[in-house]
C-alpha cells in the first residue's frame, strides 16, 4: 500500500531505497531496449532499402515520414502520463515499442506505407525517456536518503546511459545476427526484451507526487475543496493547471517549454544525422564499409557512455544547463572536423567518438533538467513536449538532406549544414533557459518529519 494516514491526514507513504533501486533498474532497461529498437531502424535502413528497392533519397524520405509520425505519438504520451500515472506510461511506452519492433519485420514486405505507420508507432519507445525524466525526478526527490539527493544527477546519468548501451546492442547484435536471420529477424529479436521489461514495469511504485495529485483530484471531485487545498499546500504541489498540452504554455512553464523545446529540436538535427543515420553518413562521406561502420558505431558509443557519466557528474556540480550547452557546442565542432578531415580509420573513429561523447553525453543532464523545470502537475506533459518536439528536428534534417541529395550534393554538405551546425546552435540556445535549483525539490519539504526510509 503506497498511501498511509498520518495524524488523521492523508499522506503518500515514504519512498524506500528498494523502490528507488528497482525503479532505476527498470527505467534503465526500458530506455536501453527502446533505444535498441529506435537505433536499429536507422542502422538497418540501408539493408531495408536494398530489400525494398529504395535509393538513398527514397530512404531519406522514409526516415522523414517516420520522424513525423514519431512526433505525433510522442506528444500524445505526456497527457496520458499526467492523467494515468508514470507507471502506466512506462508500461505503455516500452511495451508498445516491443510490439512495433516485431511488426516491423513483416511491414517491409507489405509496403512502405505500412512500414511508415508501424515505425511511427514505435515512437512510443522514444517517448519513454520523457516518462523516465518525469518519474525519476519525482521519485529521487521524494527519497530521504541524502546520498540520492546529492548525486541524483549522476544516478540518472546511469539510466540515460541506456542510449549508448542500446546503440551498442543494436550495432553488436546486428553484426552477429544479420548474416543469419536478415534484417527482419533482427527486429523480431529486439521485441523480446522490451516486452519483458514492460511486465517488470507493472511492479513499479507510483511516484508519491502523482499519488498526491490523484488524491487532490479525488477530494475536489467529492466537493472537499478545503481538504484538497490543504493537501496541496502540505505537499508543496501546484494543482490549478488545466490538463492538456496547453498547460505547459502558461505561467513559468512557458519559458521552459519554448527554450528547451527549441534547443532539443535543434539538437535532433545531429542526432538524426550522426546517430540514427550514422552508418549511411560514414559509408557515404568516408567510404566506410557497412561492417566497419558498425564497428565505428560500437566504439564511439562506448565513449558516449563515458560521456553520460561525465556530464552527469559535472551537471550536479556546475549546473545541468551549463554542462549541456557547452557539451553540445563542442560536439558540433568535433563532427565538423570529422566530416572535413581525412578518411583514415583512426581519425574517423577518434573524431566521431568525441562528437558522440559531447552530443549524447549531455542527455544524462537534459531529461532530468527538463523534469526539474516543471511543476508536478504538468511534469509529464512538459517532458513529453520537450522530448516529442525533438524528432521535428529529425524531420527537417532528413528532409533537408533529401533535398541536398536530390539536387546532386553529397552527404558531406548535408551532414555539415543539417548536423554539425545545428549541434552548435542547440548548445547556444540552452543559455536562454532558466537555471534550476538542484539541491532542493518541492517534495523534500513535504517529506520532512517522516520516518526514515
What are the key terms here?
two-stranded antiparallel ribbon; 453 residues; disordered C terminus; Growth Hormone, Chain: A; single chain; globular; mainly alpha; 2 strands
Helix vs. strand class: mainly alpha
Overall body shape? globular
Beta-strand content? under 5%
Question: What's the mean pLDDT score?
Answer: 83
Radius of gyration: 22 Å
Catalogue the unreliable spans: 439-453
Tell me what the CATH architecture is.
Answer: Up-down Bundle
Question: If you had to describe this structure to a student in words, what would you say it looks like?
Answer:
- The structure is a single chain.
- Strand 1 (about 5) and strand 2 form a beta hairpin.
- The protein has helices spanning about 15-50, 55-85, 85-110, 110-120, 125-140, 145-160, 160-200, 210-220, 225-235, 255-275, 280-285, 290-320, 320-340, 345-360, 365-370, 380-405, 410-430, 440-445, and strands at about 5, 10.
- The chain contains 18 helices and two strands.
- Residues about 440-453 have low confidence and may be disordered.
- The chain has a two-stranded antiparallel ribbon.
- Helix 2 (about 55-85) packs parallel to helix 4.
- The chain is mostly helical and about 450 residues long.
Amino acid at each position: 500500500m503506497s498511501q498511509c494516514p498520518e495524524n488523521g491526514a492523508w499522506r503518500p507513504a515514504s519512498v524506500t531505497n528498494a523502490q528507488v533501486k528497482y525503479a532505476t533498474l527498470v527505467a534503465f532497461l526500458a530506455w536501453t531496449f527502446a533505444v535498441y529498437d529506435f537505433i536499429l531502424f536507422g542502422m538497418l535502413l540501408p539493408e531495408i532499402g536494398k530489400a525494398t528497392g529504395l535509393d538513398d533519397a527514397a530512404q531519406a524520405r522514409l526516415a522523414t515520414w517516420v520522424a513525423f509520425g514519431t512526433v505525433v505519438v510522442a506528444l500524445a504520451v505526456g497527457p496520458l502520463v499526467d492523467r494515468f500515472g508514470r507507471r502506466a506510461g512506462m508500461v505503455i511506452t516500452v511495451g508498445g515499442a516491443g510490439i512495433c519492433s516485431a511488426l516491423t519485420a513483416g511491414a517491409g514486405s507489405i509496403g512502405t506505407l505500412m512500414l511508415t505507420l508501424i515505425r511511427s508507432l514505435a515512437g512510443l519507445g522514444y517517448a519513454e525517456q520523457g516518462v523516465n525524466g518525469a518519474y525519476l525526478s519525482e521519485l529521487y526527490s521524494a527519497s530521504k536518503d541524502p546520498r540520492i539527493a546529492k548525486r541524483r544527477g549522476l544516478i540518472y546519468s546511469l539510466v540515460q546511459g541506456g542510449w549508448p548501451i542500446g546503440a551498442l546492442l543494436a550495432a553488436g547484435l546486428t553484426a552477429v545476427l544479420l548474416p543469419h536471420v536478415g534484417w527482419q529477424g533482427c527486429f523480431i529479436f529486439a521485441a523480446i526484451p522490451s516486452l519483458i521489461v514492460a511486465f517488470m514495469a507493472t511492479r513499479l511504485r507510483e511516484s508519491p507526487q502523482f499519488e498526491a495529485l490523484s488524491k487532490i483530484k479525488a477530494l475536489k471531485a467529492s466537493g472537499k475543496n478545503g481538504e484538497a487545498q490543504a493537501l496541496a499546500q502540505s505537499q508543496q504541489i501546484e494543482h490549478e493547471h488545466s490538463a492538456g498540452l496547453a498547460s505547459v504554455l502558461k505561467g513559468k512553464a512557458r519559458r521552459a517549454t519554448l527554450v528547451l523545446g527549441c534547443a532539443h529540436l535543434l539538437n535532433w538535427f545531429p542526432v538524426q544525422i550522426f546517430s540514427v543515420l550514422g552508418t549511411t553518413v560514414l559509408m557515404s562521406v568516408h567510404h566506410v564499409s557497412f561492417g566497419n561502420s558498425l564497428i565505428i558505431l560500437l566504439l564511439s558509443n562506448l565513449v558516449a557512455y563515458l560521456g553520460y557519466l561525465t556530464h552527469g557528474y559535472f551537471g550536479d556540480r556546475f549546473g545541468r544547463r551549463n554542462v549541456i550547452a557547452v557539451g553540445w557546442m563542442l560536439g558540433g565542432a568535433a563532427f565538423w572536423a570529422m566530416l572535413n578531415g581525412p578518411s583514415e580509420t583512426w581519425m574517423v573513429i577518434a573524431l566521431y567518438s568525441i562528437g558522440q561523447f559531447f552530443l549524447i553525453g549531455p542527455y544524462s543532464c537534459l531529461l532530468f533538467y527538463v523534469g526539474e523545470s516543471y511543476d508536478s502537475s504538468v511534469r509529464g506533459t512538459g517532458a513529453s513536449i520537450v522530448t516529442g518536439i525533438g524528432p521535428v528536428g529529425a524531420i527537417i534534417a532528413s528532409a533537408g538532406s533529401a533535398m541536398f541529395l536530390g539536387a546532386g550534393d553529397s552527404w558531406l554538405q548535408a551532414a555539415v549544414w543539417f548536423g554539425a551546425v545545428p549541434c552548435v546552435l542547440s548548445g547556444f540556445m540552452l543559455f536562454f533557459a532558466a537555471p534550476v535549483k538542484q539541491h532542493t525539490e518541492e517534495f523534500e519539504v513535504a517529506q520532512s518529519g517522516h520516518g526514515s526510509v
